[in-house]
Amino acid sequence: MNPPDLKYTTEHEWIRTEDEVLRFGITDFAQDALGDIVYVSLPEVGDQVQAGQPCGEVESTKSVSDVFSPVTGQVTARNESLDDEPGTINADPYGAGWLLEVAVAGDSVEMLDAAAYEAHISTL
Hints:
alpha+beta; CATH 2.40.50.100; three-stranded antiparallel sheet
């Protein structure tokens, strides 16, 4: 079950917004589809990201998948612990497995509530 207090994208990212900073990661559905995650590539603090554009990669034993930024802005934090423990995303995708924090400075992609995201993934 996807936490009801988060927003979601059709590209399988979850979003938590606090003030002007947005924290995001990949959903439980996405990590399950990927399988065991073995490597994560993320932008550095200070880098700019664009809404709807790839901003990193998650590599699993099955495949490599792009991570798409849900907003335009500047990276203010990256989850450094994933460099050594990428499997944290599998174990806790909505908590310790977060990817980036971004200071929102522009556009965002369409964000779904938990019910709409559930409906979206039920069609896949």
